[in-house]
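Protocol step 4 of 5: obtain the predicted structure for the target chain.
Materials: sequence only (see below). No template structures provided, no constraints applied. The aim of this step is simply to have a reference model before the mutagenesis design in step 5. Sequence pasted as it appears in the construct record:
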Amino acid sequence: MTDRLRNSYDVVVVGGGAAGLSGALMLARARRSVVAIDAGAPRNAPAAGVHGLLAREGMAPSELLERGRAEVRGYGGHVVSGEVEGVARDGDGFEVALADGGSVRARRLLVTTGLVDELPDVPGLRARWGRDVVHCPYCHGWEVRDGAIGVLACGPMSVHQALLFRQWSDDVTLFSHTMPAPTGEEAEQLAARGIRVVEGEVASLEIAEDRLAGLRLSDGTVVGREVLVVAPRMVARAGFLAALGLRPVEHPSGAGEYIPADADGRTDVPGVWVAGNVTDLVAQVGAAAAAGAMAAARINADLIAEETRRAVAAHRDPFSAENEARVAELVAGDRRHGL
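Step 4 output (structure tokens):
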């Protein structure tokens, strides 16, 4: 079930994952009107469980989100299914347009839409994503320990990945694929750790009984592997922010695109905060949730500062404040009637 969307909120949270629900929970507990708009496409949906999250180790991602939604609602927050199509400045707030034609007004925005993993174009790879094709040793390393692990070189972090996964298995092979074979210091590091390098493009994955069995090279050679590690290009889901002049930029690591923000999640656009993978490409669930909570606390503080300024102005000049409130009421009425 989803809540009925109201006309306006103190804060609209775009995204209903760990970062978004954590932020919404913090704001609801701060007695703010808040809604999390969830498009229903979590990045970790293919995974069997969430790992490295204290007291929730191994929990199914869907169960974690369902508990989070219930907690947000328990404090009066709303969670609504929908996809945000665009955002525009509207006076001192924002107008959030939804794909179904609806809209909602927000005084502040918290964007927690995560990212999209752009996977290598290798036949059979996408269907195994989150199962025996993985990317993060801290998310999946324990589950694939002591297995025959292949690492597909497809970006600047591939050698680093191979060295990391060597912690969980002594049978690690780096496939150079479409990248040049490692040389110099990188080649020496791989050799010192007993990591084999196989040159040649990977043409497809070999599957047997619904399990990865190996990698077939373009020359027909099949190298047996039980797990394949890839480094996808990670791109922030944030196209709907373009009208505000807020666009993803290339990450310094070369791993993808993100929305820059300060340590609290504040972007260069006043009133817009970000948290989770949309701004931190490598954040795990726990880190994303913590960032959502931190950004929410800063948003609440920002709203308090605004409300305090208005209260001081009203205290100094009650007549002026009354007129300002009346004008705002009339403008809101015109907007409701399409004028």
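Step 4 remarks: The radius of gyration is 24 Å. The longest strand covers residues 103-111.
Proceed to step 5.
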